[in-house]
């Protein structure tokens, strides 16, 4: 090996931070291929590659040199991460154990040929999901099954409850990253985890009220209110919590619908009936994948539909993050109808941030886009929408918008600044 891979920051950093990748010791204008690979906790392989040409001094800096082809093209300093693709079809990129980093293997190969050229250099870059000093505490309080992530320092810290969508289980990677930015964040499971119900037949907000009370009573969490962050069905649960429960200061909906979709939402004596769906409206895309974007029933009576969450009752502000190419459902339309409902009830219109070319799974920065995966109810692969490049840029911006929104409305001060490449 004759080339040296230089990483900045060297060694390791958090997943939501950019890394600067450079190669030294090449021949002047030498053609090379850079390859990135990692395996998740289940052994699934993800890979990306791009072709480059060194400068006249034999150096290559991905912040200045455009990729000439491969998994992506153009000036994309983080392309080797966001362009990672699974070897196994329809496999979603997920971090299952946030206490260990993802180890990204970076290789420099000679030439631009279809076959791998001679190995010139290699480095391993570790990307953490818990910033130094972040504490992880499993929570088994009453019925609540969750994990609390606390930032470094004595606290108390502004609090956030983080809820994912229909997949079930307990996903912690977003909460652990948020703790690195100064937020005490509770990742909440609500079915298919430990002794929770295996199936989700209906949604009872009393369970989530317990989680909210847990946060409000925690000595490391400062009040007077809590922030809520959810994606997909998790976003609709957050919007329901904001509408029915007290002490919610701010809510972020990532590609939510603001409707009770396939199952009823219950709180005390109130039930929001499901909007319902018809699988006969499923389409088959040119790729052969199922497209479920139109399976939900029509919104008769628009913003006054009885299946709509009464978000006009929410006390704190709401931020809608929308992927305009979401194929799970029509997120942009739903966000617009939600704002119409707010205005119809004399409330201030919420902020909607729309991202073109962006699909359903808007994740933290540099997560590879999930274009399609198996739907837990259909047990068949469905398309989620999005184009890799704009989707990746949307994830970076959405993360900054979410952090800024919570800092503003929860009284936080961002602990970790984003470096610029």
UniProtKB/TrEMBL annotation:
Sequence ranges assigned to domain BAAT/Acyl-CoA thioester hydrolase C-terminal in this UniProt record: 203-411
InterPro entries: AB_hydrolase_fold, Acyl-CoA_thioEstase_long-chain, BAAT_C, Thio_Ohase/aa_AcTrfase, Thio_Ohase/BAAT_N
Claim: Acyltransferase is one of the keywords in the record: no
Residues annotated as catalytic: 232, 326, 360
Catalytic activity: hexadecanoyl-CoA + H2O = hexadecanoate + CoA + H(+); dodecanoyl-CoA + H2O = dodecanoate + CoA + H(+); eicosanoyl-CoA + H2O = eicosanoate + CoA + H(+); octadecanoyl-CoA + H2O = octadecanoate + CoA + H(+)
UniProt family annotation: Belongs to the C/M/P thioester hydrolase family.
Protein name per UniProt: palmitoyl-CoA hydrolase
Protein species of origin: Daubentonia madagascariensis
């Amino acid at each position: 090996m004759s080339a040296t891979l230089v990483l900045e920051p060297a060694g390791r950093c958090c997943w939501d931070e950019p890394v600067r990748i450079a190669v030294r010791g090449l021949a002047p204008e030498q053609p090379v291929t850079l390859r990135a690979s990692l395996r998740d906790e289940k052994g699934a392989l993800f890979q990306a590659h791009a072709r480059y040409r060194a400068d006249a001094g034999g150096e290559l800096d991905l912040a200045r040199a455009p990729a000439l082809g491969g998994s992506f093209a153009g000036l994309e300093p983080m392309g080797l991460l966001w362009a990672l693709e699974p070897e196994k079809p329809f496999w979603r990129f997920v971090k299952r154990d946030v206490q260990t980093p993802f180890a990204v293997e970076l290789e420099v190969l000679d030439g631009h040929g279809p076959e791998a050229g001679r190995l010139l250099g290699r480095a391993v870059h570790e990307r953490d999901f818990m910033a130094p000093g972040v504490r992880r505490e499993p929570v088994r309080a009453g019925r609540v099954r969750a994990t609390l992530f606390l930032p470094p320092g004595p606290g108390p810290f502004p609090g956030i409850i983080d809820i994912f969508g229909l997949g079930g289980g307990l996903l912690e990677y977003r909460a652990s990253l948020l703790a690195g930015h100064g937020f005490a964040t509770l990742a909440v499971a609500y079915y298919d985890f430990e002794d929770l119900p295996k199936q989700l037949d209906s949604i009872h907000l009393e369970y989530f009220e317990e989680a909210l009370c847990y946060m409000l009573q925690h000595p490391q969490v400062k009040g007077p209110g809590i922030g809520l962050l959810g994606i997909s069905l998790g976003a609709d649960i957050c919007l329901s919590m904001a509408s029915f429960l007290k002490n919610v200061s701010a809510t972020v909906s990532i590609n939510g619908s603001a409707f009770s979709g396939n199952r009823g939402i219950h709180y005390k004596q109130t039930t929001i009936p499901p909007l319902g769906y018809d699988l006969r409206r499923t389409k088959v895309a040119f790729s052969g994948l199922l497209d479920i974007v139109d399976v939900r029933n029509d919104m008769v009576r628009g913003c006054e539909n009885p299946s709509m969450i009464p978000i006009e009752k929410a006390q704190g502000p709401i931020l809608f993050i929308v992927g305009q190419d979401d194929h799970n459902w029509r997120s942009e339309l739903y966000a617009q109808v939600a704002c119409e409902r707010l205005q119809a009830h004399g409330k201030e219109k919420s902020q909607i941030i729309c991202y073109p070319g962006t699909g359903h799974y808007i994740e933290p920065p540099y997560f590879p886009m999930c274009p399609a995966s198996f739907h837990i109810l259909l047990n068949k692969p469905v398309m989620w929408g999005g184009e890799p490049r704009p989707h990746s840029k949307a994830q970076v911006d959405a993360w900054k918008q979410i952090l800024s929104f919570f800092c503003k409305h929860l009284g936080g001060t961002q602990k970790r600044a984003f470096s610029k490449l």
